[in-house]
Design a protein that fits this description.
61% helix, Fumarase C, Chain B, domain 1, Fumarase C, Chain A, domain 2, 457 residues, Ribonucleotide Reductase Protein R1, domain 1, mainly alpha, 5% strand, two-stranded antiparallel ribbon, two-stranded parallel ribbon, 3 domains
């Protein structure tokens, strides 16, 4: 490729070290699509003969078909996917193939390929996130009245519903989808035409290529066009947040399916056993997701570290972008692909959730609110209720079973209706403020969520 300047063959070890074909070969379709658009522009502008342009396009389409049909295998000796396809094209159509690289560099070519490739990957990740949100909504609809304890500091805090709890993850994923959309929008700019770093003397039509490839515009600075990898970092960041949310959800599932909680039961198809303990049913899927989250964080850190000290324009360091971003992409897709059916098939155990909600004085806030509604300042009501909880602990009873006479010793505003006010069902049903856990409020959340999904799907 650089014959003329060099007087000896490159060392075989350097060739192996320099090669990227083993990980950039996945961009073959993007590379061919970009080359077809580039060849069409060269022919249209008269930079090469129209007949040569057509011959190149025909040859590239045949190569794409042969790769996808398995008739053409990647050559591991090729330096990268760009040179493999160009060499194969020249082998097939002769000298016309050598004209394809007119008015472009591998620098802007790879910048184009990775954008095209990641643009498609974002669509796949986005679709999987939408599918997971739908699965969450469907599970929530079945559990609008499944009462469970809500937690802070991993301590039982206030009564909520299972539907309300898991809908929080739907909101997280909606934000994730928004971040993917933002990333896709910012990356949808054509770098081709930047060439090595300083554009070209040929009368190219970058807008034509941009239109053919579905970009929203062109990179306005050729130096930035070849050296920008913000979109890789931004996508890795968005994926890291998806993984964080999956990891948090996974952690809760791990807790919930333990015997200490037993709020849910995972389907046998999404759990594993032990090699020595016959009774074990391990939530390995969720544990792996939790572990793989750290791996994706590492991919993001790799990209940030790789880019932090690189002067303009292109540097070979940037070849490291692909392994990191592709690993992040593949990991989140694998996790989503497994998490969705696991959630769909798990069994919710409402009676265990309700039993847990009946303990831990999670209706104490409602007891204080009862007094507030009768005219007592909240801080005074808080203190009175705290005293009642202390009495309950000493007597080994709950607020529901404490005698009314004990209530009246603390405050004469208490009456028989306090027991209705602090019942779990009342505590949940009355929390009907927008975004709250009352079945009516959660049903409204689900309705709004479905409307949102209709807009963005």
């Amino acid at each position: 490729m650089w014959a003329g300047r060099f007087t000896k063959q490159i060392d075989e070890r350097v060739n192996d070290f320099n090669s990227s074909i083993k990980f950039d070969s996945r961009m073959y379709k993007s590379d061919i699509e970009g080359s077809i658009a580039h060849a069409a522009m060269l022919g249209e502008k008269g930079i090469i003969e129209k007949s040569e342009s057509e011959k190149i396009i025909e040859g590239l389409r045949a190569i794409l078909e042969d790769i996808e049909n398995g008739r053409l295998q990647f050559d591991p000796a090729a330096e990268d996917i760009h040179m493999f396809i160009e060499a194969e094209l020249t082998k097939r159509i002769g000298s016309a193939g050598k004209r394809l690289h007119t008015a472009r560099s591998r620098n802007d070519q790879v910048a184009l390929d990775i954008r095209l490739c990641l643009r498609d990957e974002i669509k796949e990740i986005r679709a999987m996130c939408i599918e997971l949100v739908r699965t969450i909504a469907e599970t929530a609809e079945k559990n609008l009245e499944t009462v469970m304890p809500g937690y802070t500091h991993m301590q039982r805090a206030q009564p909520i519903t299972f539907a309300h709890h898991i809908m929080a993850y739907a909101q997280m994923l909606l934000r994730d989808i928004g971040r993917l959309d933002d990333t896709a929008k910012r990356m949808n700019v054509l770098p081709l035409g930047s060439c090595a770093l300083a554009g070209t003397t040929y009368d190219i039509d970058r807008e034509m290529v941009s239109s053919l490839l579905g970009f929203d515009g062109v990179a306005e600075n050729s130096l930035d066009g070849v050296s920008d990898r913000d979109f890789c970092i931004e996508l890795a960041s968005a994926i890291s947040l998806i993984m964080m949310h999956l990891s948090r959800f996974s952690e809760e599932i791990i807790l919930w399916c333990s015997w200490e909680f037993k709020f849910i039961e995972l389907d046998d198809a999404y759990a594993t056993g032990s090699s020595i303990m016959p009774q074990k049913k391990n939530p390995d899927v969720t544990e792996l997701i939790r572990g793989k989250t750290g791996r994706v964080y590492g991919d993001l850190n790799t990209l940030l570290t790789m880019m932090k000290g690189i002067p303009l324009a292109y540097n070979k360091d940037m070849q490291e972008d692909k392994e990191a971003i592709f690993d992040a992409v593949d990991t989140v897709k694998l996790c989503l692909k497994t998490f969705i059916p696991m959630l769909e098939t798990m069994t919710v155990i409402p009676e265990n959730m309700r039993a847990a909600a009946a303990k831990g004085f999670i209706n104490a806030t409602d007891c204080a609110d009862y007094l507030v509604k009768k005219g007592m300042p909240f801080r005074d009501a808080y203190k009175a209720t705290g005293t009642l909880v202390h009495i309950c602990i000493e007597k080994g009873v709950t607020l529901e079973t404490l005698e009314l006479s004990e209530y009246k010793k603390i405050c004469d505003k208490f009456d028989e209706d306090v027991f209705e006010a602090i019942s779990l069902d009342t505590c949940v049903m009355q929390r009907a403020s927008r975004g709250g856990p009352a079945p009516k409020a959660v049903a409204e959340q689900i309705k709004l969520l479905k409307n949102k999904l209709s807009e963005i799907s």
